[in-house]
Structure formats: structure tokens, C-alpha cells
Design goal:
Elements (H helix, E strand, L loop, with lengths): L1 E6 L2 E4 L4 E9 L6 E7 L5 E8 L5 E3 L7 E6 L4 E6 L8 E9 L2 E4 L3 E6 L1
Length: 116
């Protein structure tokens, strides 16, 4: 079992920055990837960014490339999402996911609101 907790959300003006944190606990030695997703009001959950635990290869959605950076501290089982140049359309609940072979674990989300 893996437990995932997000933190760092809040209200920020357009153009501002925010850093989200995702902490994993439990059987973390079996995690091979962690990722961020988001869900805006009335929309489905969409992929934002992911990072492989081994090697640190990162992937980004086109909508956040060049603005968001995902990083990991494997020793602390923590993943950060640095979000810069935020736009009102980035407003959403941001969810962290820890992936093991055959099983995904989700946090309960953290709200990010970007005012225009």
C-alpha cells in the first residue's frame, strides 16, 4: 500500500508562481513513477507532468511545457511541481499519483486558483 498526500495549493494572481509538493509513504520502494494530474470545474482529469523514479525522465503536457517543472527527491519520496507564469486556465484541483506495477495510488488533491 502507498499513501499519497499533496500540499502547496492556494490562490495566486496570473503570472505568479506556486510550488506543489507530493509526499508518498508506505511501500515506496515499489514506485516507478509519480505524476501530476489536474481537474478543472466541469472537465475531466488531465495529465500535467510525470517523472520516473529511476533516471528522472520527465514528461509534460503541451499546455504546461516551459512553465512547469517536475522534480523528485527519491530519498524523501517527494515530488515537486514548480509552476511559473500561471494562467487562469491553470485553475484546477491538482492530484498526485504514485505508480506501481499494476496499481496506481492517488492523493485527495490540492486546489490551485489563478485569478486574472
Amino acid at each position: 500500500q502507498v499513501h499519497v498526500v499533496e500540499s502547496g495549493g492556494g490562490l495566486v494572481q496570473a503570472g505568479g508562481s506556486l510550488t506543489l509538493s507530493c509526499a508518498a509513504s508506505g511501500r515506496t520502494n515499489t514506485i516507478y513513477q509519480m505524476a501530476w494530474f489536474r481537474q478543472a470545474p466541469g472537465k475531466g482529469r488531465e495529465f500535467v507532468a510525470s517523472i520516473m523514479y529511476m533516471g528522472g525522465t520527465a514528461y509534460y503536457a503541451d499546455s504546461v511545457k516551459g512553465r512547469f517543472t517536475i522534480s523528485r527527491d527519491s530519498a524523501k519520496n517527494t515530488v515537486l511541481l514548480q509552476m511559473n507564469t500561471l494562467k487562469p486556465e491553470d485553475t484546477a484541483i491538482y492530484y498526485c499519483k504514485a505508480a506501481r506495477v499494476g496499481m496506481d495510488y492517488w492523493g485527495t488533491g490540492t486546489q490551485v486558483t489563478v485569478s486574472s
